[in-house]
Amino acid sequence: MFPTKDSIIRLLNVKWSSDYKHVRLFPDLATQTAWFKDQEIFHLENCSYQRKDSVVKAPYGFDSLAYYNYVAYYNDEKWYYAFIKDKIYLSDKATSLVIETDVMQTYMFDMFFGDSFIERRHCPQYDSKGRPIVNTQPESLEMGDMYETIKSYKSTSELSPYTLLTAKGSISQMIQKYPNLPDHMPPPITTVAQGIQTGLEYLILDARSDDDDGQVDDGGGNDAKGELVNVNDKVLSFTATVEYWCSHFGIPDYSNLVLAIIMVESGGNGTDVMQSSESRGLPPNSAPSTSKSIEWGVEHLKNMLTSASSNGLNDWSAVQAYNFGGGYISWLKGKGYNEHTTSTAEEYAKEKANGSKTNYNNAYIIRLTGKDWRYSYGNMFYVLLVQRYIKQSAKDTPLSVPVDTPYRITQDYKEGIHGGIDFGGRTAGVEGDNIYSAGNGRVTYAGYHKSQTAGASLGNYVCVYHPDLDIHTGYAHLSSINVKVGDTVRTGTKVGEMGNTGDSKGVHLHFNAGNGTGVFGPYIDPTNLIGVKRIGE
Predict the structure, then answer these.
(1) What is the pLDDT along the chain (537 residues), one digit of tens a residue?
(2) For residues 392 and 215, is the Cβ–Cβ distance under 8 A?
């Protein structure tokens, strides 16, 4: 890494050291960034140069830096983490900090740790001191005396059609427990070692790539009739059948949506390609033909669309109801919601599952929402999965204005001086105007911003990362916050209300933007991103 200008340096005290006997793991980059920000004790800005595995020259006395054992510094659009290995006295007002990169924290999300299967002799789960046994044979590997459970896994009764199943003994007996598996599965494969059949069988089902990202919306608008993208040839082969039944049931404009649903439900594999037999009160996967599955599925979708429309709800409410059932539409109406969002789906699934969760390792959903779990009722991410294959309507600008119109701009962005745009309230000095997410994304920060730099507190602050643009937007000085870290939001989701918190001289919204997944910059000019004019233009 080359040195860069204007490094941001945080000084901290952490409970692990460079022997890596203890490490802290994070589920995603946003959580890691937010955690280290919360641990910040001392903050340095505008440091001229910073070299990796080199020296930080701090303009403070030796004694005042004695407590710190760790630094985080921002260079080249990435946070680097390092241990303080030594402190060198320079003068009463200057100290050199000798640092060594913490490779685990710095490169945690640049590495991929795959699962592995190792067969060893049986052993106790815990040793005499109550510590988990991680090796069944002595291998001179040390384990720290402190450990933390990051993820836990349990079996699920709902397996997707892109799964590798393994079982000791007869896999055919095991899969009888899972009625949702496709009916076209190949026979199990028995493993052989040195010419002798082993007790382990495995079964490989059809796989789908998670690499092609479609345009994603969290439920707002009525773009369910958009262009079809990223589907495979198997799904496209059903186009004529889908168009026939869509026309038959009076929804000819929704054929692309139906094809997207087929992509999510089966990828075009098997007989019950729309997984629609349950909508007829029949067992799963019991449609007698692909045509009958599509007929039943289109009719079910038509009923959900009709119900959503009669209740004043958008098309995406009907799409989620295709998965949850019609009760979801009644629930939305009863709760006073006027549209589906991922948050409403999560709330409904939590209620129906009594809070029970299950592991959900879908790479696309993890990348989009930061969650590797879902509630054990239906699939609360169903609309996001379908939207992956429906291109949303294009806008004139990448993002939207985060306040209601008409709006007042009271201060423009000015590089190095003012890192955002200030919007005044509809009534000067009065708090409470709604503040909205400028685009689709995930909340990466929601709380009160404490700054070590005088006059720089953002007060109640929300940050949203927009993965389709790889930028983040910030909403500062709010009087209240309506979202939490990890929430998936869409364009127009209310994130808070305008206020005067932090270092603010009056009621306003300070709106900023920056590249990547950062939370507090570095900032870029958001003017063209939201399509507003500068003062005087």
Answers:
(1) 333 456 678 888 888 888 887 788 888 888 888 888 887 766 666 554 455 556 777 777 887 777 888 888 887 778 889 998 888 888 888 888 888 889 889 888 877 655 544 444 445 555 666 665 554 444 444 444 433 333 333 333 333 333 444 444 444 444 444 444 444 344 444 444 445 544 554 444 433 333 333 333 344 445 677 778 778 888 999 999 999 999 999 999 999 999 999 999 999 999 999 999 988 889 888 999 999 999 999 999 999 999 999 998 889 999 999 999 999 999 999 988 878 888 889 999 999 999 999 988 887 787 667 788 899 999 999 998 998 888 655 456 788 899 986 678 889 998 888 889 999 887 778 899 999 999 988 999 999 988 766 667 899 999 999 887 889 999 999 999 999 998 988 888 899 999 999 988 899 999 999 987 777 778 899 988 898 877 655
(2) yes
CA count, 13 A, side-chain hemisphere, 429: 0
**Is the whole model's pTM more than 0.70, yes or no?**
no
Token readout for 372 is 């590797």
The runs of H, that is alpha helices, within 232-338 are 233-236, 239-248, 255-265, 290-310, 315-324, 327-335
Q: Which domains are seen in the chain, by residue range?
A: 7-106 (no CATH), 164-204 (no CATH), 223-391 (1.10.530.10), 408-530 (2.70.70.10)
Neighbours of 512 (CB within 10 A): 23
Q: What angle do CA 423, 425, 426 make, to 5 degrees?
A: 120
Write out the two tokens for 517. Answer: 């997944």
